[in-house]
Amino acid sequence: MTTIPTVTLNNGVEMPTLGFGVFQIRDQAEAKQTVLSALETGYRLIDTAAAYQNEEAVGAAIKESSVRREDLFVTSKLWVSDFSYERAKRGIDASLQKLGLDYLDLYLLHQPYGDTMGAWRALEEAYRAGKIRAIGVSNFYADQLKDLELTMPVKPVLNQIEVNPWYQQASEVKFAQREGIRVEAWAPFAEGKQGIFTDERIKAIADKYGKSNGQVILRWLLQRGITVIPKSVHQERMAENLNVFDFELTDEDMQAMAKLDKGESQFFDHRDPVTIEQIFGTSLKQVQNDDAK
Fold first, then answer.
1. Domain segments of the chain: what residues?
2. Which entry of 52, 107, 127, 167 is annotated as an active-site residue?
3. C-alpha torsion sign, points 171, 174, 177, 182
4. What are the pLDDT digits (tens) for 59-114?
5. What's the predicted TM-score (pTM) here?
6. Architecture of the domain made up of 6-292
7. Does residue 43 have an active-site annotation?
8. Which of 13, 25, 47, 150 is the 20 to 30 A CA-CA neighbour of 33?
């Protein structure tokens, strides 16, 4: 079984550099089986979120698995609908309950909107209480990250952002790394957009090592000091994505990959007012539904 290297976060907690994401796997039975397959394949970092609506399935897989809890690194995220101090406290407990865990290894604010400071206070409190081993954020830009750093006592350990060959976010990555904040890439394969798995420029590099485009992309991210959480429901692809520690890209390869940057998100701009309004609209409905119960 592949040994996955770890990195030490700024609070001393060790985290695998490669993990498994479960975004868009909402069917509970499929999510549970997918996580079981990932654990069997050798993954030990599992990344979920309240908004993914599969925390219970992830928890069921962890319970059924033979992997010891102390050997796992479980991440979840708080959605915007719970961004206040009081709601965040309930959101943290809800994630723990759904996952069936006594503690989370990493818990993130999922978006940089709303009462992030109030929610962060709740995360800090849970961190000090031992409910969460490390706390961080997702989709924050450098100025938002710095604002949080300067305002709150506990520094984020990690920022999970979109990073892939088409959207490389060089300045955002460099800023976080200078601050001692780990970057974790969501959508490392851009969900297959723009022919990323067959792109001839990436394939030319892959062919030199007898690897796939996907393996080159993961290796490129790892060599940039970025943690990766690829997703697949196919166990063969899960194994392929783990098999990226037996080769190293040259400086020339890295430069060739850098030239692929299109400089724009492959999904949506987190600073677009329309996007923000849509996220808040969905969150407001969720709050109203919760309050009506």
1. 6-292
2. 52
3. positive
4. 999 999 999 999 999 999 999 999 999 999 999 999 999 999 999 999 999 999 99
5. 0.94
6. Alpha-Beta Barrel (3.20)
7. no
8. 13
